[in-house]
Amino acid sequence: MAKVYAFLANGLEEVECLAACDVLKRAGVEVELVSVNEGKEVVGSHNVHIICDSSISEKKDFSDADVLFLPGGMPGTLNLMKCERLTEALKEQYGNNKRIAAICAAPSVLGRLGFLEERKATCYPGFEDQLTGAEYTKQGVVTDGNITTARGLGYALDLGIELTALLISEDKAKEVKASIQYDQF
Fold it and tell me: Does pLDDT of 117 surpass 90?
């Protein structure tokens, strides 16, 4: 079974995280919500309180991950970037050529870490200059190698469907898409 760790920080865009994770769970992917705070509670940018499965301080490592996922939002994205334990996990994941996904402002974290050099990527408008070395595209969801980026909240379901196709199969992605009555594009 595929495993995804979603990293939540205070100030995240709640629906970007939960919509993509919901699609993955429907597909049978194991998804663990990980707080980058000391405790398991995270407060989103719209004051929604989320209790995560674990906090980053409780986890020994993330080597069993098929995907490390960063939801966006502000100041959530800045709080993700400040988490040294997370940036170390991302570097390890990237160094092992394993998949990383980010949406909205969060692709800027990947840009700052140098992961987008000579790759196509997308992000929330206004963060393009932080996609260091990337070829920016206005596509809703872009996968280039082991990196998948999405533009924003409106593409959260598309991100979950894209990751399902990559982790399981196109057929499973189509099945989940049909089951949630999502007939866009």
Answer: yes
Q: What is the pLDDT of residues 74-113, one digit of tens each?
A: 999 999 999 999 999 999 999 999 999 999 999 999 999 9
**Whole-prediction pTM value?**
0.97
Active-site entry in 17, 83, 104, 123: 104
Tell me the average pLDDT of the chain.
97
CA distance 183 to 170: 15
Structure tokens at 162: 């894209």
- What is the CATH superfamily name and number for domain 3-171? Class I glutamine amidotransferase (GATase) domain (3.40.50.880)
Note if 21 is an active site residue. Answer: no
Write down the residue that tokens 């998804």 correspond to: 31
- Give DSSP secondary structure letters for 136-147: E---SEEEETTE
- Vertex 73: Cα angle to 43 and 180 (nearest 5): 90
